[in-house]
Amino acid sequence: MRTDTGQVFRLEDYRPSDYLIPRTDLTFLLGAHDTRVTAKLSIARRDGAPLDTPLVLDGDDLVLERVSIDGRVLAADEYTATPGRLEIHRPPTQAFALSIETTLDPSANTELMGLYRSSAVYCTQCEAEGFRRITYFLDRPDVLSVYTVRMEADAAEAPLLLSNGNPVEAGILEGGRHFAVWHDPHPKPSYLFALVAGDLDAVRDSFVTASGREVALAIFVERGKQALATYAMDALKRSMRWDEEVFGREYDLDVFNIVAVSDFNMGAMENKGLNVFNDKYVLADDRTATDADFANIEAIIAHEYFHNWTGNRITCRDWFQLCLKEGLTVYRDHEFSADMRSRAVKRIAEVRTLKAHQFPEDQGPLAHPVRPRRYREINNFYTATVYEKGSEVVRMIRTILGPAAFRAGMDLYFARHDGEAVTIEDFVKCFEEASGRDLAQFSLWYHQAGTPNVAVSWSYDAARREAVLEIEQSSPPTPSESRKRLLHIPLAFGLVGPDGGDLKWSSVEGATVENGVIHLKKRRHVVRFRGIAERPALSLNRGFSAPVTLSVEQKPGELAFLARHDSDLFCRWQALGTLFTDALIAASRVLRDGREAGFDESLLALAGAIAGDESLEPAFRSLALTLPGEADIARETGNNIDPDAIYAAREALASAIAVANAKSFAAIHAALAHAGPFSPDAASAGRRSLRNTMLDYLATLPGGVETAFDHWNAADNMTDRAAALSVLTHRHGRSPHAARALADFAETFAGDALVLDKWFQIQASAPGAQTLDAVERLTAHPAYSATNPNRVRALLGTFFNANQTGFHRADGKGYQLFARTVLDIDPRNPQLAARLATGLRSWRSLEPGRQAKARAALVTISAARSLSTDVRDIVERTLG
Length: 880
Ligand code: 0A1
Ligand code: ZN
Prior knowledge:
Strand order of the largest sheet: 6-5-9-3-2-12-15-14
Bound molecules: O-methyl-L-tyrosine, zinc ion
Number of helices: 27
Helix content: 25-40%
Number of strands: 33
Radius of gyration: 28 Å
Structural class: alpha+beta
Shape: globular
Strand content: 15-25%
């Protein structure tokens, strides 16, 4: 583990490298405990670089065996080597060949960065700074090199030898060993290097690109699991076609390989021509995967593939520009999924994710701009802000420019910067040039942290036939940015008439309004719409056109009308969500005062009407009927949060809705009972989703446990099975039915680690103080492993992030487990530990008792003698 140096990296300190590495030849002699790496680097001086600068290469935990220049082994006084750095004091002034030999132990690499072994498969993870754990290098994204890689390994242990680019040569060696050589003609930064060696099965297919290049496709999985990779293969081919059709981007090598590994810190990695995946995002069939798993696989396969152009062909100049590839690629995968599925449903799901992950980040101590200006540990910046808000910023560019100019801007970006390492400024400039618009004010979205607030009050004057909107923007202060500048906020809207259609106006003043979008650029706009024949309902931030917190003075009647009649489905969902949230916040206050909560009949009836509206797609009805989560309610509540009161309020509303609609919900549940073969398509998934949402309500009624147990017994796919198990465990955790279902599940799927993750997850998210003991007991379960990131996230990650009443139990024991866990994992896997450590980022919003206990846990971690940079950075920023 690298210990913290306290060093802070700053955007303004960027300097181009004095040295370049046009070619990199790597040889790996692979051994489980002893791997030898020879790197032959062609080194050239950058034009204009001073002649007397030493060559300083990055390393991390390296053992240097030998270093030579142009074939001559260097004497000890010609260089300095430490595990973290190699300096050649006086390199030749002309281009030269530097050869470096290092040795490493892949089996001992528990950080899962650099070269490591996962279930006897050698694999690599180099983003962001893992390549320096393989050899000394200029390990920065603006140093692009053409790689040739030779691997030698035991032929029985590793019959498969893969690297980036195209295969060149392979053959047998003495002593049961063999070799393969791969060459990648596209210059790339070191973070995109990859190697995989092992004994794996494959699903193979091929793809012919628009210009007729035939590409051999393969997805490699653990032996015997090929059948589980067919959905991923299908998603890959659809992604390749879509990128040609929608962005004009073709694939550029003869092969495209994907490897699924079972120990991986993140979702997947876009290494050129050789994507490495967390097996969770490859393996699926109806027996083992839920509809959500299928949707995630489709999205992540697409995401990594799309990186081939947005990230690989055009990469980042430095790590401050991470959103250049991530925000843009998330935007692209969102659009892909929207085209493959229901656009409205996908948009609602995106906004739910954004609000659940990015909003709390942006509103707490870890807030940072989409393009940060400083970091201590770059691994901690693979955040919801960089990814999800980064995608929202690209979406806003499209909203402002319109589809044609947006596409022209993207085309210009690809044409102008192909093969380069660039910045956000370069990216934005392409859109300015393609559209002729000035995006200077808009660009602040990249540079300013925090979720902006947009407050709207409005009135309608029937005599003057005028609707007047007073709109004000403000951005709350965030760490190290106390004063905020005004943003350009594109607010899509509609003035909805009594029949649900949008009303027209004869003139408007007070802001630029075009194509259904009000462009907010000042602190306050008074926007006057003239010639409005009837009193409208106000539909705002349609399609979530801007990632802001919106507060509108709106009566429940107007919201209820919008929930039924707005032509924008997102706003229908939003209107109903606002009604639910308001009711839940009021109820939690009443309950906290020891009184009983009651709900407006009309809200309960509205829920019933939407559930039963067959003109709406089932997936939408399911999302609309899903009550805001406890964390969502907490976020809207603001400060002084009492998770128990929020939980009680949510339960009370759920049963009130169920009681009011018992018959119709039971009918919907029955009517949607599954028949025929399983299909993972969006429409079928939507029907399952609505049926399972109905079950969740029905389970609150008398006899609910039997209903859920029948559903469990009848389930013939994992979506229904997992839904029933979670309803039983969460709503009837003490029933014999729940115990029985949990035991059956564990027995049926014994040995299938990915499926058992769902079992861990469901138990870890069971509400109530008693879950803590269950979670601690489960850490001793034979299927659990404290070294596998998926297991840790399923059990402890779920408990810390998705269990408001369990983790935040009033006695603070949840926080003590949190501190113990972070400290236990940190020495083995700092990245994983740091991610878990973000689980207390909203501690300041808790009520005073819990707040003090949460703080104590954070202080315990920060007081530990040896902490990784990763964890120290998170914990110190969280404490503030
Ligand atoms: N670039 C990847 C994310 C990623 C980042 C760091 C990693 O290191 C463990 C792994 C993956 C993506 O956006 O998919
Ligand atoms: Zn990515």
